[in-house]
Fold this protein.
Amino acid sequence: MQLDRHPVIAEPVSPLNLANLFTFSRILLAAPVAVLFLSEYWVAGLILSWVAGLTDFFDGLVARALNQESRLGALLDPIADKILIGVIVVCLLLRNVLPIWFVAVVVARDVMIMAGSMALLRREVHPHSASYLSKFNTCFLGLALTVAILGRAQVGWFWTAATPYFLIVAAALTVASGAHYIYVGLKLYRHQDQ
């Protein structure tokens, strides 16, 4: 994670743009994803989850290509990610797909990041971009959840057998990513006091 004391953009950009539309769609898709998983339509829920996840790629791509990077987009993008991931892991917990310890790790990290980001924003320290560790963690978390869902859907013995190992690695990456956020956040917080 890299943070900057300067605004994300130099000039105002309308919040009503295509990039932010992708971000809003990710938030809206969390509801049907929840319905599908709670109804145990595993494959349909998985497909829609990946469609929602892909909007995270397209909103950034469109924002850079069309110069639509806005303050609203920078704030909503991580919130949309955490809403989608939070909805998925909680629904999978309720359907006994994920263990409670795993969900606690994922949710605790996201709550900690949001709380830290709010504290930094109050000091006019604005998020700039996610670290490579955070991006890798998000990708591997998506992979681990996919494996767990396919295991629950009983599409093959491999997915069921592999699920615990993927969850352990994903949890370790989540903790490491969270620790990195804390380190960088505290460093910036203290630096501003000097």
About this structure: Confidence is low (pLDDT under 50) at residues 1-11.
